[in-house]
Every structure is written in C-alpha cells, then in structure tokens.
Amino acid sequence: MDTPQNTALMRALTELPGPLPARGVIHIAIRHTDRFTVVGNHLAQHPTLSTTAVGLAVRIQSLPQGTEIGIKALAARLPEGEKLVAAALRELEAHGYLQRARTRLPNGRIVTRTVFCNQPTALLRARVAVRPPAPPQAPPPVQDPAPEPPAPEPAPPQAPALPGVQQEQAPEAPAPQDHAPFVALVPPPTAPRQPPPPLPQPRELTAELHRAATALLSDLRRHAPRFTLSENDVRQLAPAVAAWLERDAHPDAIRHALTNDPPRLLRHPAKLLKHRLATLLPPPLPGADDLAAPARPRIAVTPFQTCDGCERAFRAPNPGHCRDCRNAHDPAQAAA
C-alpha cells in the first residue's frame, strides 16, 4: 500500500462513546502512568502568549530541578535560535511565569537564578500567616529531679524568599500556623441548590406557533446530531420555543442560541435546551411608539400686536393700544 494506515487509531476512534462531531478535533485521551507533566489551560490556551512561548514554557516545566535554562542552553537543544528563545523568555517573564534574579553566592560570585512558576495566579491568593512566638514564661518548680528530655534541634535557616517563588517547607516538625480563611469558589455538593428557572410560556399557544416550535425542535438533529430529542422532550419544550417565536425571534437565531458551543460530554441535551430556553429568552420587540422620540413641550409665546394709536409693536394676546397710549387716554384704566 502507498499510504500507511494507522489501524490502532481508527479502531480507538470507533470505540469512543456517543456521537462524534462532524468537524473539528476529536480527542482520544489515554491516561498517562509515567513520564508526564501537568499543564494548566491558563498556559496552553493563553490568549496573548505566542505559540513559541507556550511551547517553551511546557518544555521548561518538564525539565528536572536544577537544569540550566539560559538562552544559550535552551537554544543548544531546541531548533529555534537564540533570538526566538530570548523573545519567548521575555514573554513568559512579562506574564509572571518566569523570573530572573541576580544572586551572590557565598564565595562572592554573582550568578543569575531563573525561577519558573507553573501557576503565577496562585501566588496572588492569601498567603499563610505565621503566628508570632509567645513570650517566654518562667518554668514551674521541679518537685523531683528527673532526667530532662533532649532539646529539639533548631530548624535549619531558610533562604530568603524570592518574589514570585513559593518556598517549600521541611517535612519534619512543621511549625504551628494560622491559615487564612479559605473561600470556596465552587459550592460543596451538600449545599442547597437553587430551583431551576421555569420554562417560558407564550401568551397564546396557537396551532401555528405549536407547529412551528415542534418542527424547529425536531429539526435540531439535522444541524447538530448531538441534539437528538425524543417525542416527549419535544412535547415539553415546544411551548418555550413558541414563546421565543411569539417575540419575533428568527428560527435560525433560536437554533444558534440553543446549539452553539455545547459541552464536550453532552449526556442530556433536553436539560441543556431547557436551561437555555429559560435563561436566554429575548425581550419583546419594542413597538413603533416606543422607538419614537419624545415630543418636546410647547411653550406658549405671546404674539406681537401693532398699536392702533401709535403703530408701535407690543406683545399682547389681542389687538389694541400699547401701554403708553392707554395711559394717555385713560390713566385709571391703564392702572387697572
């Protein structure tokens, strides 16, 4: 045969549970038992780090403790050149994964110590607070002489902590510590769960709305095979889809909102559709009166009039004489 076929890979592909996606990557995950490195998605899917920086970070994370990871040492074992390796190291240093500090050795020699942290965001959490030592107290009087127990050996001095590096503690005789209060980001399984939101209902479920909603739900498997619903599921979800159609939502927009970006292991598509129908319900479209600009209030303006006596312009609701002409003809009427 001209083209070799990987029969083992194809056999493993046929043994994957559930329907496979029509396009995109298909993962065949085999658990590692030795020689593996755990890499977080915060690094593997970093939005701003270059692919070279991500790959170099994975390579550094897989190296044993004490391995030289300078620019020349990495470029000697990688196909990338020194300029590309130096640029990737600067990226990792800018995002907190790498730190290079100059340290003076006991013999007076100055060296550059490179520190790599696989999860720099964890260094921003609450640190462990050490309880201050209690003041010394006078020992109680000894009644009978007894052999004193051997004094505990003093703990070896620790190196000064570098910023961005988590210091490891000795396994023997740990000192008493007071830990900062732990805030759980994920509620425990025993926590009371909030009831799911109810499914939306249309104001009037007409026969035409029910037919269109049923057809849309039954047709989902043609566009996304993972959303194959039973007749009972379609019957329960049809009123909620009718509520979307009643609010002038386009069928294509409804289909995209229900089937876009599903979880990798979708075991109950009807539950996911029920959640999305309840939480993503669009508001009703505004009417023409709601979109019209508000009318400005009209201000009443007193018009100009021409005086019948002196033909001078003055403001008055009705034609007549101006104030001067009224004063000249009848001062008592002008005053009134």
Give the topology, please.
Blueprint: H1 7-14, H2 41-44, H3 51-62, H4 71-77, H5 82-94, E1 98-104, E2 110-116, E3 129-130, E4 177-178, H6 207-218, H7 220-223, H8 231-246, H9 251-259, H10 269-279, H11 288-291, E5 304-306, E6 313-315, H12 323-329, H13 331-335
Antiparallel strand pairs: 1-2, 3-4, 5-6
Helix pairs in contact: 3-5, 4-5, 6-8, 8-10
How is this structure best described in words?
The protein is mainly alpha-helical. Among the domains are: 37-122, Winged helix-like DNA-binding domain superfamily/Winged helix DNA-binding domain (Arc Repressor Mutant, subunit A, Orthogonal Bundle); 207-279, no CATH class; 306-335, no CATH class. 33% of the residues lie in helices and 7% in strands. It is built from 13 helices and six strands. It has helices at residues 7-14, 41-44, 51-62, 71-77, 82-94, 207-218, 220-223, 231-246, 251-259, 269-279, 288-291, 323-329, 331-335; strands at residues 98-104, 110-116, 129-130, 177-178, 304-306, 313-315. The strands form three sheets. The protein has a two-stranded antiparallel ribbon. Strands 3-4 form a two-stranded antiparallel sheet. A hairpin with a 5-residue loop joins strand 1 and strand 2. The longest helix has 16 residues, at 231-246. It starts with 6 loop residues before the first helix and ends with a helix.
